[in-house]
Amino acid sequence: QVQLVESGGGLVRSGGSLMLSCAPSGGTFSSYSVGWFRQAPGKEREFVAAIDWSNLSTLEADSVKGRFTVSRDNAKNTVYLQMNSLKPEDTAIYCCAARKYRTATMKGELYDYWGQGTQVTVSS
Question: Which of 22, 29, 47, 85 is deepest in the core (most CB within 10 A)?
Fold first, then answer.
């Protein structure tokens, strides 16, 4: 069982930046692909970005391309989501998810483990 812990959320003004981190509470992360998802109040969960286990391939939603970057440091057992040029519509709870497959996916139902999430609020 993998337990994921996110950190780095907070309140930021429009145009600002935040970096989220996701790490397992125990065990190694290196053989898992990891995705980031978000859910705003009253809306369905949506895919944000994902990275494969080798750190060679990433996926990003169209809404965040050019602004968000997903990366990982397997030596530190951590996956990051760098968020730049934040907009009020990026306000949501951001969760990371992991699956023990080489390739990343945008489909949330294919991830086996989920974190509790971290709140990101962008003020206008």
Answer: 22
**CA 88, CA 106: separation in Å to the nearest integer?**
23
Residue 5 DSSP code = E
Tokens 């959320």 belong to which residue?
9
Strand partners, 68: 83
> Of all residues in the chain, what percent carry a pLDDT higher than 90?
88
Amino acid at 116: Q
Three-class secondary structure assignment of 27-71: CCCCCCEEEEEEECCCCCCEEEEEECCCCCCEEECCCCCCCEEEE
Higher-pLDDT residue of 114 and 54 is 114
